[in-house]
Design goal:
Layout: H1 2-22, E1 35-38, E2 41-44, H2 56-74, H3 79-90, E3 94-95, E4 99-101, E5 104-110, E6 118-122, E7 130-133, E8 144-151, E9 157-164, E10 170-176, E11 182-190, E12 196-198, E13 201-206, E14 224-229, E15 238-241, E16 250-255, E17 261-267, E18 274-279, E19 288-291, E20 298-304, E21 307-312, E22 320-325, E23 335-338, E24 344-351, E25 354-361, E26 364-371, E27 376-380, E28 387-392, E29 399-405, E30 412-417, E31 422-427, E32 438-446, E33 452-460, E34 471-474, H4 489-496, E35 500-504, H5 514-518, H6 526-541, E36 550-555, H7 557-568, E37 575-579, H8 598-601, H9 607-616, E38 629-635, H10 644-656, E39 663-668, H11 679-697
Length: about 700
């Protein structure tokens, strides 16, 4: 009798899914005649008009698409239950690893459902935290977020950047830490900038003001470094560095801890930097070039006098720590302190006269203590498969504050006492999630060309490999970014429902160094898609799941991944969620900071690279086919990956889908690429995403 009821319900549920999809009447998206010629090849772009995101026609299209999507999602019977559970899961205290500046400790905290984390300070870690900056008070809907900040050496002032509605643009203000009051200083049109204090002012980078109606799409050119002195107007800021010959280069400034040296990093893309240094103690000092090309990455860890300790991949795919003497600054005189090894070096910090290193061993963190010559002295033991999110210390400190996260538990904070060599946990979240009921395993599977690819698989203990489990595969594979163990609150909803959450470490990422990264770039980008497809095939072949129980997801470059995979293999999964994706691979470089991505993707202006891009560009490979149930996610203020990518892709899908699955787009308003998105908007987005996933996988939530 019970089995009969389940069968009956399953049939009813399947019928409901089909009926909901059948009710959809998509907008009649206007098609225009637009033919571009790339190296003799004619390419049609019928939805070019959707690139004008502020035009009345585009706004009307957005409104119509959102209405259809909202109607579909509102009819999912358990949607409110998903939202209630997400809200309950999200409602736990969060804390970042503290760090010390001057005589104060600083950390970010969230009491649970605050839209933005607040910056707090303490005189000691035993004191109650005092709020220094609460971004939640800057906008009623929580859409103002902290875009970057720095604290003066004496801990008297906080310079902070605020971005609005998810934009990359930010406005810098200055706050007196003791009084909590803002100074009159206001710096505008800042983007892709750090903030670095020197004396009674700070360095920052910005562009000239864009045209008023093109702030979110205009190409960003001629980045400049300025110095701002407290109490002065922005127009009085001193131009420190610019490059009039190379409009696409970006620059960022960093001051050493002792404030004696200024470093300027230059970049043309998302990979590789030039590096210059200037002695600030010498009024007549000139720039000393340490690296004049963009072949390698450099990041200053600290300095001892005129010796710079630099984290780099200079002739070291898996990174190393070097020492550069400014008396002998040529590369042949650079000295290896922590030479390259088999594991990936993710970061280094000083702790008095010791070095603390963070390595990635098979995509899981390891932390070691070394002397200044680089000799390893001990290991700080971590709890299993995990990721160290922060290692905070300094040359004047005898302790390290660090945080650890895993796929099954949120971030915990530890205090390592270097004097006695022991760690103790000083913060554990009070989340309503039974972490002990779940397990993470790491498997290695074979990709199309024979390469072994690692994948993390997280699920409830005692899982039966019967091919009937709902499964969710998240991928990225690009820009040298490593996807390591992390706790995503929204994934907990899926795990609790019996789902399997999988993260394959695709080529193009940085998990195994620069060689791994380069194996997934430009004309080798297909390796990334093949790695992801092989992951899905592995999960099906080994009975973790089946095609009808499989959902795939990726964000940004990962949105490109999903778009490419679903157009190459429409049968790959039941559900696809391409989010803020780069989907038009022939025109991405024409918007905002898109040209910087050509180091990974190549550029359609180059004949050979055009041919590679055109072979997989998701927008240009949407052909008549039965596609997975698709929910395209984007934000109308995304000025990183402009939403036109998603607009055009969704329009093409809706025209060409020959199957019965829905192909919808959800366009978040007053939202950008994702950084700084308020908690309330995150819960709304993930409510819709997971309701869509559960519904189309046939999971009775």
């Amino acid at each position: 009798m019970r089995q009969s009821y389940r069968t009956c319900f399953a049939l009813m549920f399947t019928g409901l899914c089909l009926n909901l999809a059948a009710q959809i009447v998509y907008p009649k998206t206007r098609s225009m005649v637009q033919t571009d010629i790339y190296h003799g090849v004619k390419v049609e772009d019928p939805y070019r008009w959707l690139e004008e995101e502020n035009s009345p026609n585009t706004r009307q299209w957005i409104e119509a698409e959102n209405k259809i999507t909202a109607t579909y999602l509102q009819q999912i019977p358990f949607r409110s239950k998903v939202k209630d559970r997400l809200t309950a899961l999200w409602n736990y205290t969060k804390m970042s690893a503290p760090y010390k500046k001057g005589n104060l400790f600083f950390s970010f905290r969230n009491d649970g459902l605050q839209n933005q984390a607040v910056l707090c300070t303490q005189k000691s870690l035993m004191d109650d935290p005092k709020i220094i900056l609460d971004p939640n008070l800057l906008a009623g809907d929580g859409t103002a977020s902290l875009g970057g900040y720095d604290i003066s050496k004496d801990a008297k002032y906080l310079a902070y950047g605020i971005s609005k509605a998810g934009s990359d643009w930010m406005e810098i203000r200055v706050r007196n830490i003791e009084t909590g009051q803002d100074m009159p200083d206001i710096i505008q049109w800042v983007k892709f900038s750090n903030i670095s204090w020197k004396g009674d002012g700070f360095y920052y980078s910005r562009y000239d003001a864009p045209a008023s109606d093109k702030a979110y799409t205009q190409k960003n050119e001629f980045h400049k470094v300025y110095y701002h002195k407290l109490g002065t107007a922005q127009k009085e800021d001193v131009l420190i560095y610019e490059d009039k010959q190379h409009p696409n280069r970006n620059f960022s400034a960093q001051v050493t801890h002792d404030e004696n040296y200024l470093l300027i990093y230059g970049s043309e893309t998302t990979s590789g930097q030039s590096l210059m240094v200037k002695d600030l103690s010498n009024p007549k000092g000139t720039w000393l070039t340490l690296a004049d090309n963009f072949d390698y990455e450099y990041s200053l860890v600290d300095n001892i006098g005129n010796q710079l300790y630099v984290y780099t991949n200079y002739k070291a795919s898996r990174y190393k720590l070097i020492k550069i003497s400014l008396n002998h600054p040529k590369p042949e005189d650079w000295e290896d302190v922590l030479p390259e090894k088999e594991d990936l070096l993710e970061g280094v910090t000083f702790c008095q006269n010791k070095l603390v290193s963070n390595y990635l061993h098979k995509v899981s963190s390891k932390v070691y203590i070394h002397n200044l010559s680089g000799k390893q002295e001990k290991e700080i033991v971590l709890p299993g498969i995990c990721k160290v999110n922060a290692l905070n210390s300094g040359r004047d400190q005898n302790f390290v504050c660090y945080s650890v996260v895993s796929f099954t538990a949120p971030e915990e904070v530890y205090f390592y006492d270097a004097m006695v060599g022991t760690s103790k946990r000083i913060f554990k979240p009070n989340i309503d999630f039974n972490s002990s009921a779940y397990v993470t395993e790491q498997v290695f599977y074979t990709s199309k060309d024979g390469t072994q690819i690692p994948m993390f698989i997280t699920h409830k203990k005692g899982l039966l490999l019967n091919g009937k489990n709902p499964c969710f595969v998240f991928g990225y594979g690009g820009f040298n970014i490593s996807y390591t163990p992390e706790f995503r609150i929204d994934r907990a909803v899926f795990l609790e429902a019996g789902g399997i959450y999988c993260v394959p470490n695709l080529r193009g990422g940085g998990e195994f160094g620069e060689e791994w990264h380069m194996a997934g770039t430009k004309c080798k980008k297909q390796n990334v898609f093949d790695d992801f497809i092989a992951a899905c095939d592995y999960l099906v072949d080994n009975k973790y799941t089946s095609r009808d129980k499989l959902a795939i997801h990726g964000r940004s470059n990962g949105g490109l991944l999903i778009g490419a995979v679903m157009t190459q293999r429409p049968d790959i999964a039941k559900v696809a969620i391409p989010t803020v994706g780069v989907l038009d691979m022939l025109r991405f470089h024409l918007f905002t900071i898109g040209r910087a991505w050509t180091v990974d993707y190549g550029c359609s202006e180059n004949k050979e690279e055009f041919e590679c891009l055109y072979k997989y560009s998701p927008l240009h490979h949407v052909k008549p086919a039965a596609y997975p149930a698709t929910l395209v996610l984007t934000g109308d203020h995304d000025d990183r990956v402009v939403p036109a990518h998603s607009f055009k892709f969704a329009a093409a899908l809706q025209k060409n889908n020959t199957g019965s699955n829905p192909t919808l787009i959800r366009i978040d308003t007053n939202a950008g690429h994702g950084a700084g998105k308020p908690t309330a908007k995150q819960i709304e987005e993930f409510t819709d995403m997971w309701s869509f996933v559960f519904y189309n996988l046939g999971v009775d939530y």
